[in-house]
Amino acid sequence: MTPRDALPSLGDGHPVVAIDVGGTTMKVTSVSADGTMSPPRRVPSPPPGPGSADEVVRIATALVHEEAERLGAPPAALGIALPGVVVEDQALGVYSENLEWRDVDFRAAFARTLDLPIAVAHDVRAAGAAETRLGAARGASTALVLAIGTGIATSVQVDGRLHVGRGYAGEIGHAVVVPGGEPCVCGNRGCLEATASAEAIRRRYERDTGTEVSGSKEVFARAAAGDPVAVAVRDSAFDALALGLSHAITLIVPDVVVLAGGLSEAGDALVVPLAQRLESLVRYGPVPRLVRATLGEDAGLVGAALAARDALAAQDDPQPSR
Ligand SMILES: [Zn+2]
């Protein structure tokens, strides 16, 4: 991991606790009244299965109590970012493939364990909100924050508003970019994620060469050294990313596209060839700036904290002017 600066300040407001629930790890931070975020702590996520949502609520509740001691004051809200399909305003976890829950009402679940307002966020949209308000896309009103890791998904912000699409907005990883191509976990073939995720790049290289590699980073290094199979896998991934992005760009005309997730650590080795492909694919409208995320793997956690602060601000001022 690239070393990163401390988490950004959220400014003055209520003290809150923020949690980001991942497939394997739950991260927690607390935000003091002056907006300082404490260094994140990590605990293991519960195993997948029918009890996983209750376990997440139990672990999160214990974390909130621990963070309250750290804060030295009771937090005014909990912001929690969840994976999978999430409808934020109903606090609904519709579906998580990693943790195997379906239709969980997290507000009702937390009401049984915690006497605190809850703001539910979606991990990718939370990261998108964090990057557009405090990170690489700061100030942009229309933006995509594309996370390329094990899977691929994007936040879709249009004219200052995050689009939710009943929980399914931004699942560009399952848009077909190579008809009849690589099989995908969703059952389709040729999905962007099956072609160009960090995991797909590793898997495709190993299949085509019979050689085990540590990950997409090693495939990029082999491509840079002239390995023709690595070059072919890498370039076809870039082609697929550019094609998928070009459609999203044509549709919403973002000011900026932020590249996040594990693959974005490749830096210019990803940004430059992708920008070149977009220049040649997007001829009719403006080509957005392409930049790397700045909040890194903590963007979802920062977004969860923003969601908690936003929920409290809406309570304080039910008709905000912004
Ligand atoms: Zn798919």
From TrEMBL:
<dbReference type="Pfam" id="PF00480">
    <property type="entry name" value="ROK"/>
</dbReference>
<protein>
    <submittedName>
        <fullName>ROK family protein</fullName>
    </submittedName>
</protein>
<feature type="compositionally biased region" description="Pro residues">
    <location>
        <begin position="41"/>
        <end position="50"/>
    </location>
</feature>
<feature type="region of interest" description="Disordered">
    <location>
        <begin position="30"/>
        <end position="53"/>
    </location>
</feature>
<comment type="similarity">
    <text>Belongs to the ROK (NagC/XylR) family.</text>
</comment>
<dbReference type="InterPro" id="IPR043129">
    <property type="entry name" value="ATPase_NBD"/>
</dbReference>
<dbReference type="InterPro" id="IPR000600">
    <property type="entry name" value="ROK"/>
</dbReference>
